[in-house]
Amino acid sequence: MSALLPSTIAEPVEHEVVVTRSRFITTVAPVSDVAGADRVIADVRKRHWDARHHCTAMVTGVLGDQARSSDDGEPSGTAGVPMLEVLRRRGLTDLVAVVTRYFGGVKLGAGGLVRAYSTSVAETLDRAVLVPRRPLTRATVAVPHAEAGRIDNVLRDWVRHHDAVLGEPSYGIAASFELWVPAAERERLRADLAAASAGAVDASFGEERIVDVRPE
Q: How far apart are CA 150 and CA 122, in angstroms?
């Protein structure tokens, strides 16, 4: 599975630009599916109920292979498709963009509309925190409770340097730590755990999954 997967964004962002007295208010938000995107669109429409247009573009799916856009009353091809092209160029998926336009009384023409909608989305995405996605393998590390604090510190430092993600620990008879690691780093994890514990701690590996590598 390729590691070069589309990214998403960490949280919703709203940004406004004014072009020849027309206000373009853009909302971009992460979503998990089309239904989630539709809920975001409905919320924007409710908040800006008095606006003339709510143009949309969305990309969903792990590979970004599902897309949809709407001009919402603007001339065909001047809003939704240019917005979608920005999302595509940025290599993004599982997000929706909504541009709400309050008409300022001056017609912008087809070219002006394309530039306004494209710029609105691009400037908003410039303010978003990107979340890369990687195919990672699940690793489980079990240690005695007496060693849990020290190994926890070791693992927290390790994931920062190896493009890995630390999951939630669980505590039963022993402390169990979950990590998601690149396949190429599995043996490095085992070696580093052995070095940190005089050979007493090892990792076991399981499924591979697409994981959001969120910034700290």
A: 44
Please, are residues 110 and 78 in contact by the beta-carbon 8 Å criterion?
Answer: yes
Tokens of 129: 């925190």
* Whole-number Å distance between alpha carbons of 202 and 199: 8
Q: What is the pLDDT of residue 105?
A: 84
CA dist., res. 85 & res. 88, Å (int) = 5
**Phi and psi angles of residue 186, each rounded to the nearest 5 degrees, phi first:** -65, -45
Q: Where are the alpha helices (DSSP H) in the chain?
A: 34-47, 80-89, 109-126, 145-161, 186-197
With both helix axes pointing from N to C terminus, report the angle between 145-161 and 186-197 in degrees, rounded to the nearest 10: 140
- pLDDT above 90 covers a percentage of the chain that reads 67
Tens digits of per-residue pLDDT, 88-101? Answer: 999 999 999 999 99
pLDDT of residue 199: 87
User: Three-state DSSP class for 199?
Assistant: coil
Yes or no: say if 102 and 51 are a contact pair by the CB < 8 Å rule.
yes
pLDDT digits 0-9 by tens, 144-158: 888 888 899 999 999
**Hey, CA dihedral for 132, 137, 138, 140, is it positive or negative?**
negative
Judging by DSSP bridges, how do beta strands 133-143 and 204-212 pair with one another? antiparallel
Amino acid at residue number 58: M
Looking up tokens 């979608």 gives 84
Look at residue 108 and give its three-state secondary structure.
coil
Could you read off the pLDDT of 181-214 as tens digits, one per residue?
998 899 999 999 999 888 888 999 999 888 888 7
